[in-house]
Structures are given as structure tokens and as C-alpha cells.
Amino acid sequence: MIQHPIAPVYDETSRILVLGSFPSVKSRETGFFYGHPQNRFWKVMAEVSDCSVPVTVEEKKAFLIKNHIAVWDVISSCDITGSSDSSIRNVVPNDLTVILEHAPIEKIFVNGKKAEALYQKFIQPDINRKAVCLPSTSPANAAWSLERLVEEWRKQIWN
Description:
Oligomer: single chain
Shape: globular
Largest sheet: 4 strands, parallel
Number of domains: 1
Strand content: 15-25%
CATH architecture: 3-Layer(aba) Sandwich
Structural class: alpha/beta
CATH topology: Uracil-DNA Glycosylase, subunit E
Radius of gyration: 14 Å
Number of strands: 7
Mean pLDDT: 96
Distance between the termini: 39 Å
Order of helices and strands: EEHHHEEEHEHHEH
């Protein structure tokens, strides 16, 4: 069983919550969300926010707070092989009230189909809030170009 090692990022001005499934091996190594250099999350978020791409963990945290975006994952702990979402078993979900009781979250988004399925199974029944599924920024989602991701994320997040 692997415990989620990264604290959520949010503050009292966060209006958007983006949830992944569980940190990849690279994210667990770097100690921050979307740490794999091939993951397009930071490029997409920078583009939809009309900002430069944050590089360091400090820049990424500042970027999220400035843009009123909270980031965390659906899973608190699980069994997982490497970074493979399809291998996830024995899920213990995160308690989103940590964020929802302290931030005026208006929209909840999940990054990819696995995060959506986990959210619907483990979190939505408890908090009774739907999440919008965005196409995954993972490099495994090769069907979506960076341009298509940016277009879809922009449409959903800032509509």
C-alpha cells in the first residue's frame, strides 16, 4: 500500500479544483503534482491561464494560488504498480472536505477517465457534487495533442 505523499494545494480563494487519480512515480520522487516531464498538465494550465509555464515547485504552487486553482488527487492510498492507473487496487479516497470546507470551490474537474471513475465511485456519493472529466494530460493519452488539450481544458475551465 502506497500513501499519497503530496499535500493538496489550495487557499481561501481557490475556486477550481482539479483532481488526478494518484501521483506517478516521478511525481512521488519530485514531491509535487504532475512531476513527469512528459505530462502536459503544467503546459496546458499555463496556456489556458495565459501565463508562462511554471518550472519549480514554488513557481507551480504560486501559479495555482494566483489563478485560484486547487490541486489534489482522488486517492489517499492504494496498491499500484509503477505509475499505471490500470493497476490501482485497494483504494482509500482522500477526504475532500479538507479543501471544500476552506475554499469556495465552484467547479470540480478530474484529469482523465480513471480519476473520473474513482471520483464517481469513492467521492461523489459522499459529497454529492459532480465533477467534469477533462481529457488526461498524461503522455499515455497520445490521442490528444497539446493543442487539443488546451482547447478542451480552456473551454471547460473558463466557460
